[in-house]
């Protein structure tokens, strides 16, 4: 999948949104990148689904780009959430946000991260872990009843 921002085309990979021109340069000049599997890996579908679930619950659109937290920071919030099942790639978060209607804006020419027009809601950094899904639901119900 490709995203174009201000005339520059980015390819969405598991590592994030990578500028095509920089990706080609990196592959030509840096031998350590040539054999990396992640360079051609697309975001994992399960990870995208988990990110979309988190986004629906803890974010809402805003008019302007939010530069306080980029995709790499936000993916860590998803990973720490009680219902998450571990690792989520940067590219999975970017794709999930895009599919939920947010505008990705690359954080820089060489950066795989992206900013979004996303406002975070209360509770997005919840780090409590629950063993049982019913415990999570009970905690959510009690939080909402306050």
Number of helices: 6
Instruction: State the strand order across the main sheet.
Output: 1-2-3
Distance separating the two termini: 42 Å
**Helix coverage percent:** 40-55%
Please explain how this structure is put together.
By secondary structure, the chain is of the alpha+beta class. It has one domain (2-144). It has helices spanning 20-29, 31-34, 45-58, 71-80, 90-99, 133-144; strands spanning 2-5, 8-13, 16-19, 59-66, 105-106, 114-120. The strands form two sheets. It has a three-stranded antiparallel β-sheet with strand order 1-2-3. A hairpin with a 2-residue loop joins β2 and β3. α4 (71-80) packs across α5 (90-99). The longest helix is centred in the middle third of the chain and has 14 residues, at 45-58. It starts with a strand and ends with a helix.
Structural key phrases:
146 residues; 3-stranded antiparallel β-sheet; globular
Secondary-structure blueprint:
Elements: E1 2-5, E2 8-13, E3 16-19, H1 20-29, H2 31-34, H3 45-58, E4 59-66, H4 71-80, H5 90-99, E5 105-106, E6 114-120, H6 133-144
Antiparallel strand pairs: 1-2, 2-3, 4-6, 5-6
